[in-house]
Amino acid sequence: MRSLILLALVGFAAQLVDGSLGMAYGVTSTTLLLAVGTNAAAASATVHLAEIGTTLASGISHWRFNNVDWKVVAKIGIPGAVGAFAGATFLSSLSTEVAAPIMSLILLALGVYILIRFTVAGLPRGELGKPLRKRFLAPLGLVAGFVDATGGGGWGPVGTPAILASGRIPPRKVIGSIDASEFLVAIAASVGFLVGIGSENIDFAWVGVLLLGGVIAAPIAAWLVRHIPPRILGSAVGGVIIITNVRTLLRSDWIDAPGNIQAIAYIAIAIIWAGAIAYSVREYRRDKEHESVEAVEAELNRRTEEEEPTPAA
């Protein structure tokens, strides 16, 4: 019972993060399932089955807050579903001993990417209004879907930064569109896992509690995406993913590191992680102060223009 409550809380927290950043529900949840010894394919299958419900709830919530560009959803979601099905059948064909370290490597790479992306760059900005072409979104969806299924997560970490970097649609619509299109990816991946490993290898109680936590969090996350600092949240989540998957790799048969080496690695990661969060907080405050100064200057300029007398004709 205690483990089910913990999983429900993880589903809730993971969806809060995912709905706010446009990434990390699958990466966070799969990381935890691997940490407790779940088979790699079963872990990804469990998360993707839960994501059918959470992504539907998240997509509806983002739609109600006008955070979704449906053209983007169609152009990236269908290729993403194809890639996810291929990734699920590929992972299902691997042995447990081979699959777990491979998945941890993928998750670790995604965690490093999330940490660096949000710590160093924050949310990129560019020119808005230009259309996103299918020739860009279709290959992106195909790759992101494959990574998502094989890594137990990756749709958001691959898709969200790529679209954000284009600067062509507002960040909140990038996040909403990625979350909405992930519904198609979750269905395709789930079908692939059911074909590949069968339903007997999946704990549906775990699916249910992950789903419950995620559905409760979805509307809250869709509202929070307008109010919380994504830069700080991204740095925090990236560190969690890194340290958890480093732990899995160091204890795997591939490395089997002694205890003192593991301790040194954890301490080093913790120091870097703390520094990244501190840097993100500082940069976020600096950006807010800069925006406040610009707003005050704009208001003063507006008032000055209003008070200037109109020249006589």
Automatic annotation (TrEMBL):
Keywords: Cell membrane, Membrane, Transmembrane, Transmembrane helix. InterPro entries: TM_pro_TauE-like, TSUP/Inactive_protease-like. The keyword Transmembrane helix applies. It holds the Pfam family TauE. Residues 289-305 have a biased composition (Basic and acidic residues). The chain crosses the membrane at residues 72-92, 98-116, 180-198, 204-225, 232-250, 262-281. Its main location: membrane. GO terms for cellular component: plasma membrane. It is a multi-pass membrane protein. Belongs to the 4-toluene sulfonate uptake permease (TSUP) (TC 2.A.102) family. This is Probable membrane transporter protein. It comes from Thermocatellispora tengchongensis.
